[in-house]
Every structure is written in structure tokens, then in C-alpha cells.
Automatic annotation (TrEMBL):
Source species: Nocardioides donggukensis
Residues the record lists as binding Zn(2+) 1: 95, 106, 204
Keywords: Hydrolase, Metal-binding, Zinc
The keyword Zinc is annotated on this UniProt entry: yes
Keyword Transcription assigned: no
Name of protein: Allantoate amidohydrolase
Gene Ontology molecular function: hydrolase activity, acting on carbon-nitrogen (but not peptide) bonds, in linear amidines; metal ion binding
Record: residues binding Zn(2+) 2: 106, 141, 390
Coiled coil (residue ranges): none
């Protein structure tokens, strides 16, 4: 499966991936996923948000068998998970889109591992007592339409259809047009797919080096840090780069540059994260002082209060600099996700009797959106030897990936009984 996906959307120059939501490469990955589901005789369901869940339905006799086991309290594989109240479908999976020039593992590893876990459970002769679903969620990265986890946000109602209709990509293409062009019939909003998901477990490559330091191939998530994306619009006065004296300028690029340094300093002092990773200048000429600079801040912190303090501090210092430069500044919060603590009873049952560390993650995931919507959720991480993510250098070893499949299969076996 990994060999099939490896070349899709990969840049020959950088080795990175360009699988933009509803673009040709991402659609090719989705078509591959549907073929894999058909080969396993899974029941595929889709919604008008670009999400898909492929169900492995339980054996007809499994319900009575599991009920008898539960009453008797017999010890079988996954019995340490039996006390958790999960009465519907158990879903796993991830996403197939990527950031611009991204890595191979972020998202697709969770999808491939989910299919492999189903294969492994069947090899073990497991008959699930409740349906097991394999899911792919649309526009998880937010790299095209600027709103991370868009598919799962629409699925759960965290983002309204009205908000989604206003979304445009960098070329001005509306979300609805992009979806229709990809063969998705847009029907934005909370969908019936959500009704079948009573528990969600997402496997993901670790986006850091915590497991490397712990010398552990697999870990379990405890929480997701709160994070947000903020648009900074710096305005000034366009002018000639040669004839305009430095002291006569109202240069928004200067205000922006100082703000980048300020954000870096604030995040370091507070032990949080702040990144300006995207910038646009108008008129974007080499020999012109720009009239406008628009930049996007990605900010993350340990708590909601710490995130608010971090962004407020950057905003305040940026405005002070704008006053000195004779420029203007407007700050818009484009998306903010609060802290997500995964169901502690679920995490405890998953790690019971296993040597799997429980660690936080600073990256956002669909599992966090579903958890915030009240669906018991958990995450498994597979060790990333480089610790690098959102980059072609993202990596995972074959042995660790196979350990992740084994871990996911064990968890699903317990939850599905």
C-alpha cells in the first residue's frame, strides 16, 4: 500500500508532497483509498463535506457472543477495554491531503495503518462485536482554504455552512467550486456520518522527538495544545525604493519584520510556539516600498490562557512598532482551537499493561475536533526518527510503522468487542 501511494503528488525537485485538498493528487489518493475499501468489501459512505467512512460490519453472531463475554467478564484479547461505554461504531483513520511540500507520513500513515489493522484483525480471526470504520477526512491541513480540519469541523458542526461558503483559496477559487470540480456534491454541514461514530482512534506519525528521547516506537496522546491562525494586515505608503529617504518612509514591511522578531522572542520567553510562515506583499516589487503586507501567525501554547496572552503580547508590541513606523495594523483571528484533553479513561485503558508512554501533542488533528464534539477519542503516535514534520524530511521506520499497525489492531480489537 505504501508503495502505491509514495509517488502520488510527490515533487521530483524537493521530494516533498503537494496533495492539495480537492486537487488532482489528493483525488488520486482518495480513489486509491476507495479501491482498497472495495478490495476488502467495506461498506463505503460519504458526505457532502468530502469525508468518507468505510465500514467493516460485524459478524451476525458477534453481538450475542460479545454480550455473553461481557456479562461473564471473560478474559480475551482487548478485555482491558471492555468497561468503556462505547455502543456504536469504532472508527480509525486520518487524512490524505498535505501541506505544501509536505512529508509522506502526516495523514496517509494513519489511513494505510487503519487498512492494515483491518487486515491483521481478519488474519487473527477477530469478529468485531460492533462496526469498525476506516475514515478519511477532507482538508485537514488547512493548506488550501486556511481552516485546518475543515472536513471534520463541518462533519461535527464546529464550522457552519455559512462560514464554509465564504472560504477561498489563494487563487480566489471558492470552496464549493473546488469541491464540485473534484466530483464532490457539496452539502455542507453536520452529516449523518457522525451518527455512526461512537469512538475514534487516530494513528499519526509523531510531529516531534518525544518518542525518540523515550526510545519508544509507539505512544498515546494525552492532549492537544490550543492553537490558532491569525492574519496580520500591515498597511503603509507605497513609494520609490531609490528616491524615498529612509526617514520619510511608512514601510509596512519594516513593521512586519520587527513583529516576526517580537513573536519569536515572546514565544521563547514564555516557552510557547509562534511562527510567521506565510507572507504576501503588495505590489511585491523589488524596487518599491510596499503599500501592504499581509502575514499569517501560527500560535500554540500549553493552555487557552497562555495562548491568549501570547497573541495579545505580540499584537500589543506590533501596534507599538506600527505607531513608530507610521503604519497601520489590523489583526484577525481566522481560526482558533481550544485545548483538547482526550478521554482519560480511554487513554488509561489503551495503555493498561503496555509500555506505551502518554504524551501531549502541539499539532492539531481531526481526533481533537471529534473529541471536542463529545466523541470519545484517542491518538496513537508512531516514532519519527528525524522529529521533522511538514517537510520532506519527515520519516518513520518500517519496524515502527508495523508496531503501530499492531498497536492499532490491538486497540480496535478491544474496543470492537
Amino acid at each position: 500500500m505504501w508503495r502505491d501511494l509514495a509517488p502520488v503528488g510527490r515533487s521530483a525537485a524537493s521530494g516533498g508532497y503537494f496533495r492539495q485538498p480537492f486537487g488532482s493528487a489528493e483525488r488520486e489518493c482518495q480513489a486509491w483509498f476507495l479501491e482498497q475499501c472495495a478490495a476488502r468489501d467495506l461498506d463505503v459512505r460519504t458526505d457532502g463535506n468530502g469525508n468518507t467512512v468505510a465500514w467493516w460490519h460485524p459478524h451476525p453472531a458477534a453481538f450475542s457472543i460479545v454480550h455473553e463475554d461481557r456479562v461473564a467478564g471473560s478474559a480475551d484479547q482487548g478485555s482491558d477495554l471492555r468497561g468503556l461505554s462505547v455502543e456504536g461504531g469504532v472508527v480509525t483513520g486520518s487524512h490524505l491531503d498535505s501541506v505544501l511540500d509536505g512529508g509522506a507520513y502526516d495523514g496517509p500513515l494513519g489511513v494505510v495503518s487503519a487498512l492494515a489493522a483491518v487486515d491483521l484483525l481478519r488474519e487473527r480471526g477477530i469478529r468485531p462485536g460492533r462496526p469498525i470504520g476506516v475514515a478519511t477526512f477532507a482538508e485537514e491541513e488547512g493548506s488550501r482554504f486556511g481552516l485546518a480540519c475543515l472536513g471534520s469541523r463541518l462533519l461535527t458542526g464546529a464550522t457552519t455552512p455559512e462560514q464554509a461558503r465564504e472560504l477561498r483559496d489563494r487563487d480566489g477559487v471558492p470552496l464549493l467550486d473546488a469541491m464540485a470540480g473534484a466530483g464532490v456534491e457539496p452539502d455542507l454541514g453536520r452529516s449523518s456520518l457522525l451518527d455512526g461514530i461512537d469512538c475514534f482512534v487516530e494513528l499519526h506519525v509523531e510531529q516531534g522527538r518525544d518518542l525518540v528521547h523515550r526510545d519508544a516506537p509507539v505512544g498515546v496522546a494525552s492532549e492537544i495544545w490550543p492553537h490558532g491562525r491569525y492574519r496580520f494586515d500591515f498597511t503603509g505608503e507605497a513609494n520609490h525604493a531609490g528616491s524615498t529617504r529612509m526617514e520619510d518612509r511608512h514601510d509596512p514591511m519594516l513593521t512586519y519584520a520587527t513583529t516576526v522578531l517580537t513573536a519569536n522572542e515572546q514565544a521563547r520567553v514564555l516557552g510557547q510556539r509562534a511562527t510567521f510562515g506565510r507572507v504576501e506583499a503588495v505590489p511585491n516589487g523589488t524596487n518599491a516600498v510596499p503599500s501592504r503586507v499581509t502575514a499569517w501567525l501560527d500560535a500554540r501554547a500549553e493552555t487557552d490562557a497562555a495562548l491568549a496572552d501570547l497573541v495579545a503580547g505580540i499584537d500589543r508590541l506590533a501596534r507599538e512598532r506600527a505607531d513608530r513606523d507610521g503604519t497601520g495594523l489590523a489583526v484577525t483571528a481566522e481560526s482558533v482551537s481550544g485545548a483538547v484533553g482526550f478521554a482519560p479513561d480511554l487513554a488509561e485503558r489503551i495503555v493498561a499493561g503496555r509500555d506505551w508512554p502518554v504524551i501531549p501533542t502541539q499539532a492539531g488533528h481531526d481526533a481533537g475536533v471529534l473529541s471536542a464534539a463529545g466523541i470519545p477519542s484517542a491518538m496513537l503516535f508512531v516514532r519519527n526518527p528525524t522529529g521533522v514534520s511538514h517537510s520532506p524530511a519527515e520519516s518513520a521506520g518500517v519496524e515502527d510503522c508495523l508496531a503501530g499497525v499492531e498497536a492499532l489492531a490491538d486497540v480496535l480489537a478491544g474496543l470492537a468487542r
